[in-house]
Design the sequence.
């Protein structure tokens, strides 16, 4: 079964450093998403992406965050200057059609980011 | 605005007994509802979804859920628990009024006792 793959599975970084989390969505999917889960809290929406631009973003997704689809297969999340509160599990997801209409969104296994 | 409330943070059942994980939702529009499962060190896997067709939805691994509009509920059930069902379960709503994102419940940790 096709799956969303994420790298790295776990990254430790120093506060203030830049981090790039990478994702390979399912190959025929056109809609891409990032979610995050801080330890002990709910999974939260960060951003959705379609046709090489951000479709929607949450209030969490401030100027420190950016997303990019640098080639035909990868989808990345960059955190420019990490803060302690960015420590979380980051989930990449993709869907064939718009997720808000009940179409299935498929999630990767997550990248656990620890900021020290 | 949409929201999801999972009524139990932890549920513990014995192997072979029924499972009930409760979920209530709030949505301004006709919602789509999902249950995802997360096993330790694994990603979020879709168990089942409701998208305005049949109100009783069957999913993988013997799970099913019933959409009850009058009660704004979407409880997840399984007749007989298996040890491999031990995981965290998330009830999720997608609201056509805010068509771009999923809203997650806080999760229910299911423990299956031998």
Sequence:
């Amino acid at each position: 079964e096709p799956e969303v793959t994420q790298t790295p599975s776990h990254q430790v970084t120093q506060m203030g450093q830049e981090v790039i989390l990478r994702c390979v969505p399912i190959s025929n999917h056109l809609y891409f998403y990032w979610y995050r889960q801080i330890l002990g809290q709910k999974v939260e929406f960060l951003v959705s992406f379609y046709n090489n631009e951000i479709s929607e973003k949450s209030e969490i997704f401030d100027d420190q965050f950016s997303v990019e689809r640098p080639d035909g297969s990868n989808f990345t999340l960059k955190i420019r200057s990490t803060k302690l509160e960015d420590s979380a599990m980051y989930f990449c997801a993709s869907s064939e059609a718009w997720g808000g209409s009940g179409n299935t969104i498929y999630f990767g296994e997550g990248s656990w980011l620890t900021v020290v | 605005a949409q929201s999801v409330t999972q009524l139990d943070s932890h549920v513990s059942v014995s192997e072979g007994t029924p499972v009930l994980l409760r979920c209530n939702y709030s949505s301004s529009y006709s919602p789509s509802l999902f249950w995802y499962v997360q096993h330790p060190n694994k990603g979020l896997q879709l168990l089942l979804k409701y998208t305005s067709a049949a109100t009783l939805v069957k999913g993988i691994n013997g799970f099913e859920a019933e959409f009850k509009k009058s009660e704004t509920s979407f409880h997840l059930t399984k007749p007989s628990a298996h040890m491999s069902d031990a995981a965290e379960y998330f009830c999720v709503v997608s609201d056509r009024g805010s068509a771009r994102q999923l809203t997650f419940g806080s999760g229910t940790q299911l423990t299956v006792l031998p």
About this structure: Chain A touches chain B at residues 4, 33, 35, 41-45, 48, 55-56, 58, 91, 93, 98-102, 104-110 (CB under 8 Å).
